[in-house]
Amino acid sequence: MKENYMPLDEALKVISKDRERTNIMRKYEQKTIAYLVQYVPSFISSNMLTGIGLVGNLILGLSFVLGAYYSPYFLLIGIFGSIVNWYGDSLDGRLAYFRKKSRKWYGFCLDITIDLIGITAIGVGFIVYLGKELGLIGYSFIVMYAMAMIITLLRYKVTDKYSIDSGLLGPTEVRIVICLALVLEVIFNGTFLYFAIISTLILLFSNIKDIMSLLKLADIRDIQEHENTDKSI
Fold it and tell me: Which residues contact 20 (CB under 8 A, 6 or more apart)?
């Protein structure tokens, strides 16, 4: 049974009030989250969901290690890990808002920390799967993804708006692409190398674009603050 039933549209407003999404899947994803938070058992807390999300990323990272040492078919476990990660990572903060138990700053710090641990685990899996000779690609992926997370924090500081998306792409779209890449690697062994290179380059160019945009916004904010200071004197 639902713990706290409310119409879907109302639940959608509750879970979306502090975050603006721009990703392609936002319409369907947000409705799904608004539906699912009403079915989360009362003994499961937001922190537990954050932990579940981390477990999902650890499973994904482990799938690369197993795929490297045993069989590429183990990569398919990573799809399950991605689903687990989506569930935990997408519902943790939204559940807190739905239950009116949000801890904005605590949750923000915890989420960023756990995400960094999770992406590091995935990156290590990349390095192991690609091998010693191509490990630099896996390392580059970690650096670029970590940079994307830093940009998210900078955007929050400069604009006072927290967004986890970069234009039309968000974490959900990234998970879907990774899952497709895993399936292709199982069918056509060796294709994951190209995925790793392409995804790293996309992150690189996306980060450069976002940084340039942020610098412009930061410059505008500096000018506005100086003007306000001059007027107050």
Answer: 161, 163
Q: pLDDT tens digit string along 195-226?
A: 888 888 988 998 898 899 899 988 888 888 87
Q: Which domain holds residue 127?
A: 8-232
Banded pLDDT at 94 (limits 50, 70, 90): confident
Residue 184 has pLDDT above 90, yes or no: yes
| Choice between 16 and 209, residue whose per-residue pLDDT is larger | 209
User: Is residue 205 a part of any domain in this protein?
Assistant: yes
**Residue 3 domain-assigned?**
no
Chain centroid, CA 227 distance in Å = 37
Question: Is 92 inside a domain boundary?
Answer: yes
* Contact predicate 184/191, CB 8 Å: yes
What's the CATH code of the domain at 172? 1.20.120.1760
Of 87, 66, 89, nearest in space to 185 by CA: 66
Q: How far apart are the first and last CA of the chain?
A: 61
Task: Provide the whole-model pTM.
Answer: 0.84
From residue 85, alpha-carbon distances to 96, 148, 228 in Å are 17, 18, 44
Structure-token pair, residue 113: 């920390």
Compute how many other C-beta atoms are within 10 angstroms of the C-beta atom of residue 223. 10
What value does the mean pLDDT take over residues 157-165? 76
**Per the domain annotation, does 149 fall within a domain?**
yes
Domain count, the chain: 1
